[in-house]
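Per your request, structure below.
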C-alpha cells in the first residue's frame, strides 16, 4: 500500500515508519511527504530517499478552504492508499477528508479521549494521572475525535516534566504507529487492528 505522509516538523514518526519499512516490519511503501512548512526537516528525509517532497503553504492560498482543496489535490498526485499524519500541526479540512474518507490516520500523544489537542503530555501532568500513552486513530472533522485504532500505555514517573514524558511517549509511538500502518497495508479490518494491538502495546 502506498502511504502519503503529512508532517510539519522533524518527522520522528515518519523516520520510525521508514525504518520499519526498510527492516521489513511494515508492508507499506512511502509515496511521498507533504508539509505546510517549507522548512520542515521531514521534507529532507523524503528528499534523501528520493521521494516527492511537496510543500502546500497556507499563505499561498486565499483562505483555509482553498488551502484544504490544494492539499487534497497534492495528496492525490501521490496516489496513496493511506494518508498518515506524523506531527502535522493543522486541522484537516472537509475537501481532504472527503477525498480520503476513512483513509487518514494520526498518532496522538495521549490515551484518547483524554487530553486531545495541543500539549497532551503537559495536560497529563497537570491532571496528575499516573498512566498516559499514545493513540493511533482515524482522522475526522473534530480535534482528535476519530475512531481509535490502537493505543499504548506509558507510565508517568515521579519528577517527570513535559519533555521527559513526551520523549517516552514518542518511543511508544515509534513502535505502535508502524505496526498499525503495517496492519492496514496488509488489509486488516479496523476491528482486527484493534484486537491485534490490545495487550501488545509497548509500555516504556
Amino acid at each position: 500500500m502506498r502511504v502519503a505522509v503529512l508532517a510539519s516538523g522533524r518527522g520522528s514518526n515518519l523516520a520510525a515508519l521508514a525504518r520499519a519499512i526498510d527492516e521489513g516490519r511494515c508492508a507499506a511503501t512511502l509515496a511521498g511527504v507533504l508539509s505546510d512548512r517549507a522548512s520542515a526537516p521531514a521534507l529532507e528525509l523524503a528528499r534523501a530517499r528520493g521521494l516527492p517532497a511537496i510543500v502546500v503553504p497556507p499563505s499561498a492560498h486565499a483562505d483555509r478552504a482553498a488551502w484544504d482543496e490544494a492539499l487534497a489535490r497534492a495528496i492525490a498526485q501521490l496516489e496513496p492508499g493511506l494518508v498518515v499524519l506524523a506531527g502535522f500541526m493543522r486541522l484537516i479540512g472537509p475537501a481532504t477528508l472527503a477525498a480520503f474518507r476513512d483513509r487518514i490516520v494520526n498518532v496522538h500523544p495521549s490515551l484518547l479521549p483524554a487530553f486531545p489537542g495541543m500539549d497532551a503530555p503537559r495536560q497529563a501532568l497537570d491532571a496528575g494521572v499516573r498512566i498516559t500513552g499514545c493513540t493511533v486513530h482515524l482522522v475526522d472533522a473534530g480535534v482528535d475525535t476519530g475512531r481509535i485504532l490502537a493505543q499504548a500505555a506509558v507510565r508517568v514517573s515521579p519528577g517527570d516534566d513535559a519533555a521527559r514524558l513526551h520523549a517516552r511517549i514518542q518511543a511508544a509511538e515509534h513502535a505502535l504507529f508502524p505496526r498499525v500502518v503495517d496492519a492496514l497495508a496488509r488489509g486488516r479490518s479496523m476491528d482486527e487492528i484493534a484486537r491485534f494491538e490490545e495487550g501488545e502495546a509497548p509500555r516504556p
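Strands lie at 2-6, 29-35, 53-55, 82-85, 104-108, 131-138, 148-155.

Regards,
D.
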